[in-house]
């Protein structure tokens, strides 16, 4: 029987997704969480020639960008952080006091588009539910379809990488997985402190680190896991945090 038009459409999706999924199984860097810090880190690492896979549990990558602040969809970036927009097709508008504004839709979509065009494999609707740890080193992520592993007795699959970045924002999901098992400072701070926009912009960048062999943190995950201040609704530090993570991870990979 000749394949119907519907069958050929399904086949095209299956073939393309299969090829992408196979490519994502072994990466230089696996990033969990496609918010501003994860997307920026993914883009920078891809531009450095790294093989990058980005897992996002939601339908749409972009994390907190879409909502701006209190669902007012404008994003604020400070003078000192304008370099965080390098290579992204957006035009910030001056807003006084050393601040600039950007349409949130424009920033989220431009970041996603640039990351994909630069070779990052983005797999959405994939929930990271555990880590692979071999000989005291994180070597990958255990993941399932969003909504499946949480509700049904369906086994997950795993993705391997030389470095894993926890960019899951307030959830600090990968850090908590290690903490629950006592593999990482079980008595670490329970969450971020109260809001301090100035201090937060600094510490979210300064705190980027490899917190366990093979596991790095960026973005809001830094504040949560290190007890830093809650951030103001400003995105410069978040993007710079992703940039610093990309730089440190790339150097660590070069050093072997
Ligand atoms: O929350 P999110 O945008 O994190 P971020 O990059 O940026 C924080 C800002 O958006 C904002 C702020 C600005 O001042 O403070 O909050 O640190 O993006 C995190 C992404 O991770 C996904 C989640 O859906 C979101 O898109 N995520 C969280 N847990 C998992 C996950 C998981 N277990 N598996 C896959 N994705």
Percentage of residues in DSSP E strands: 25-35%
- The separation of the N and C termini measures 54 Å
Mean pLDDT: 96
Low-pLDDT sequence parts: none
Largest sheet entry:
8 strands, mixed
Query: What ligands does this structure carry?
Result: ligand 48F
Overall SS class: alpha/beta
- The rough form would be described as globular
Taken in chain order, the helices and strands follow as HEHEEEEHEEEEHEHEEHEH
Number of helices: 7
Cα-based radius of gyration, to the nearest Å:
18 Å
Helix content: 25-40%
In total, the number of strands is 13
What do you see in this structure?
With 256 residues, the protein is of the alpha/beta class. Helix content is 36%, strand content 27%. Strand 1, helix 2 and strand 2 form a beta-alpha-beta unit. The termini are far apart. The model has no long low-confidence stretch (mean pLDDT 96). Bound molecules: ligand 48F. Ligand 48F binds next to helix 2, strand 2, strand 7 and helix 6.
Task: Record keyword descriptors for this entry.
single chain; 8-stranded mixed β-sheet; 3-stranded antiparallel β-sheet; 7 helices; binds ligand 48F
Write the layout of secondary structure elements.
Blueprint: H1 5-24, E1 26-32, H2 36-47, E2 52-56, E3 74-78, E4 93-96, E5 99-103, H3 104-117, E6 121-124, E7 126-134, E8 137-145, E9 157-166, H4 173-180, E10 193-195, H5 197-206, E11 209-212, E12 215-217, H6 220-226, E13 229-230, H7 236-255
Parallel strand pairs: 1-2, 1-9, 2-6, 9-12, 10-13
Antiparallel strand pairs: 3-5, 4-5, 7-8, 8-9, 11-12
The structure holds ligand 48F.
């Amino acid at each position: 029987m000749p394949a119907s038009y519907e069958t050929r459409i399904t086949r095209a999706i299956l073939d393309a997704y299969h090829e992408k999924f196979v490519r994502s199984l072994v990466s230089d860097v696996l990033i969990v969480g496609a918010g501003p810090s994860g997307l920026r880190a993914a883009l920078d690492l891809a531009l450095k020639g790294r093989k990058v896979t980005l897992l996002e549990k939601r339908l749409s990558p972009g994390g907190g960008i879409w909502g701006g602040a209190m669902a007012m969809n404008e994003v604020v970036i400070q003078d000192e952080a304008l370099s965080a927009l390098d290579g992204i097709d957006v035009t910030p508008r001056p807003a006084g006091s050393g601040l600039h504004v950007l349409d949130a839709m424009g920033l989220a979509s431009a970041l996603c588009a640039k990351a994909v065009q630069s070779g990052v494999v983005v797999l959405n609707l994939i929930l990271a539910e555990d880590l692979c740890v071999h000989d005291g080193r994180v070597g990958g992520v255990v993941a399932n379809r969003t909504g499946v592993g949480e509700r049904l007795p369906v086994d997950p699959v795993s993705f391997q990488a030389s470095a894993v970045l926890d960019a899951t924002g307030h959830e600090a999901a990968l850090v908590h997985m290690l903490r629950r098992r006592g593999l990482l400072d079980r008595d670490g701070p329970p969450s971020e402190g109260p809001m301090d926009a100035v201090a937060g912009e600094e510490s979210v960048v300064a705190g980027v680190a490899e917190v366990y062999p093979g596991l790095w943190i960026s973005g809001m995950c830094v504040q949560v896991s290190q007890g830093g201040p809650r951030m103001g609704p400003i995105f410069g530090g978040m993007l710079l945090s992703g940039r610093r993570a990309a730089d440190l991870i790339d150097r660590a990979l070069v050093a072997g």
